């Protein structure tokens, strides 16, 4: 199964991954909230951060309505919006802080590897993000 891999030393901080992610999650014709965030950790040192798709995902375990489920094909933990009761327990449960609250839509958002074709990796010019 393919995994989204991060090689921080390749990241140049261009934030193309953030844009690609936002445009791949369009809401009402507008870019959605990016599921990847690039942090500047020092002079010319950048770190792309996104959901790690944990094997023993705390977000899945804590969800009272089973709105978070693992996609058998991609291995990604995905949100089933119609099941979500917006309790925000998944945000608190993620030990890495990689689930965010989309205020306008009132839903949690997290990386879903774009249904098996992650745009962040596809558009990363230095291959700091790769899907392999």
Task: Describe the fold and architecture.
The protein contains four helices and eight strands. It is α+β, with helices and mostly antiparallel strands and 132 residues long. It has one domain: 2-Layer Sandwich (Alpha-Beta Plaits). The protein has a two-stranded antiparallel sheet.
Summed up:
This protein has 132 residues and is α+β, with helices and mostly antiparallel strands.
Strand order of the largest sheet: 1-8
What is the count of DSSP helices, taking H or I runs of 4+ residues? 4
Q: Look at the helices and sheets and give the structural class.
A: alpha+beta
Mean pLDDT: 95
N to C succession of SSEs: EHEEHEEHEEHE
How much of the sequence is in beta strands?
15-25%
Shape: globular
How many separate structural domains? 1
**Helical proportion?**
10-25%
Radius of gyration, in Å, reads: 14 Å
Largest sheet: 2 strands, antiparallel
CATH architecture: 2-Layer Sandwich
**First-last Cα distance:** 8 Å
CATH topology: Alpha-Beta Plaits
How many β-strand stretches?
Answer: 8
Poorly predicted spans: none
